[in-house]
Amino acid sequence: MDDILKRSEVHYREIDEWRVLDELDGETGPLDYAMEEAVGEAVARREVPATLRIWQGPQALVVAKKDIRTPRALQAAQMMKQVDWPVYVRQSGGTAVPHGPGTINLSLFLPRPRDIRWNIDDIYRMLGLPLIRMLDRTFDLSAYFGEVPGSFCDGRYNVVVGGKKIVGTSQIWKGGPAGLVSHRPGYILAHATLLTQVDRERVVSALNAFYEMAEGGRPVYIDTVATLSSFVLGPSDEVERRARAGLLESVGELTSVHTTTQPTKQEREAAEAYIDRCRPEHYEQRIQS
Amino acid sequence: MNLPKELKYSEEHEWVKQEGDNKVRIGITDFAQDELGDIVFVELPEEGDELEYNTPFGSVESVKTVSELYAPVSGKVLEVNSELDESPENVNDSPYEDGWMIVVEMSDPSQLDNLMDADKYESMVSE
After folding, report:
1. Is residue A19 over pLDDT 70?
2. Do the domain assignments include residue A224?
3. Is the residue at A198 inside a domain?
4. What is the CATH number of the domain that holds A77?
5. In the prediction, which pLDDT does A264 show?
6. Where is the BPL/LPL catalytic domain (chain A) (predicted)?
7. A144-164 residues labelled b (16+ CB within 10 A) or e (exposed)
C-alpha cells in the first residue's frame, strides 16, 4: 500500500500546475453537479489547471446514467424526491451514492494526456491518496483501498477503514476510452464521497428504497458502511471541521497549492447551462422515445 | 493483440467493418476492451439516430469508470446491438463478433479514408 501511495504522489508532482477549489461553505443544490461538467470542460480546454474540488452536495441520492434508464427508475426518482431524497444524475459510473450534510466530496480533474500516462487504477489511487493521508494524519485511522461486498457503489477502490466502507469513488474519461491514447482534448474526472457523520440507517434505507422501486432490489447492508464519526469520538461538527482541515492540508502538500479559490465566472455560467443534465427528467424523453 | 486485417480502425479505438457501399458495423477493439477491463454497461444510440463524425455516440462503463465512444463516421444508425443491454461482457469476450455495437449507413463514405489499417493501428497503440 505504501508503494502504491508513493507512486501516486509522484503522479501529483508530474503535473506542473494545480488549482484547489473549496466550496464547502457555499449553498448546495443541483448546480453542484453541473459544476462538475463545467470544471471538467474548462480543464479540457486548458483554461484552468488540473483541479481538486472540495465540495458538498445537497441531501440526495446521486446515480449514474445507467440507473435511470427505465420508466420504473424515473418513477422511483420521483418517489424519492417526495421523501426529501431527490435523485441527481452524475456523469461517472457506479451505483447510487448518498450526498448531503455529513458528507464531503473530493473531485479530481485532469486534462486528458496526449500519451498514455495514467490508467484507471492510477487515477483512483491519486484520488484516494489525500483522503487516506487525511484519515491517517488527522484521525490516526489506517485506511486502504478495497471492495466491501454489500456496500453502496461497491468497487475495488473504495476507501475502507476497519473493513467498512467510508469513501465511495468513480470516474469518467471524456475524449475517448479510459487509459488509452486519444488525440482529442478531453478530461478525466474522478470523484469521491467521504461519509463524515451521516445517519447510516437513514441513508441505507433511502438507497434500498430507491433500488427496490427502480429495479426490485439491490440491497445495501448497513454493517458494510461506516462514517468518520463511527471511529472518532467528539462532536460531529468538530469531526467534520477537522476532516476538512486535514483534507486541505493533504491536498496542499500534494499540489503545493495552499490558497483555495472558487470556480471562475465562466465555469459558473457553463454550470447554469448544464444544470438540466443532472435531473432525471432530462432523460425521460429519451426513455419514452 | 487481435487486429483483423479486413477491418479499419479509428484513433479512438473503434473498429469499422464495411458491409456494403455505405454500410458499416462498429465496435471497440480488442486492445481497448482489454485495457478497459470488465465492461458492465454499454450506452448506445437508438436506431434512426444520426451520428456525427468525431463526436460522442455512446459510452462504456468498466471499473465504475465511464469512457466516451466517438463516431468514426457520420450517418444514420440502422441497427443497435441490444444484446449488450443484458450481456455487456460480450464486448470483452468477443469484441469483433458478438460485441459489435451499431450498424451505420454512412452519409459520407470518404470518411473511411481517415481510418487506419490494422498495421497502422498496431503501430499507434505500440508507441
Report:
1. yes
2. yes
3. yes
4. 3.30.930.10
5. 97
6. 46-241
7. ebeebeebbbbbebbbbbeeb
Domain ranges across chain B: 8-115
DSSP letter for each residue of B14-25:
EEEEE-SSSEEE
Whether chain B has a CB inside 8 Å of the CB on A10: the answer is no
Mean of the per-residue pLDDT values for chain A? 94
Interchain proximity A120–B63, CB inside 8 Å: yes
Cβ(A155)–Cβ(B66) below 8 Å: no
**pLDDT (tens digit per residue) in A185-239:** 899 999 999 999 999 999 999 999 999 999 998 899 999 999 999 999 999 899 9
**One-letter amino acid of A117:** R
pLDDT in tens, A39-56: 999 999 999 999 999 999
Domain that holds residue A149: 2-281
Number of domains into which chain A is organized? 1
A278 catalytic per annotation: no
Q: Do residue A170 and residue B124 have CB atoms under 8 angstroms apart?
A: no
The top-level CATH class assigned to B8-115 is mainly beta
Using a CB–CB cutoff of 8 Å, tell me whether B1 touches chain A: no
Q: Does residue B126 sit at the A interface (CB-CB below 8 Å)?
A: no
Tell me the whole-structure pTM to 2 decimals.
0.95
For residues B61 and A178, give the distance between their C-alpha atoms in angstroms, rounded to a whole number: 10
Give, rounded to a whole angstrom, the gap between the first and last alpha carbons of chain B: 14
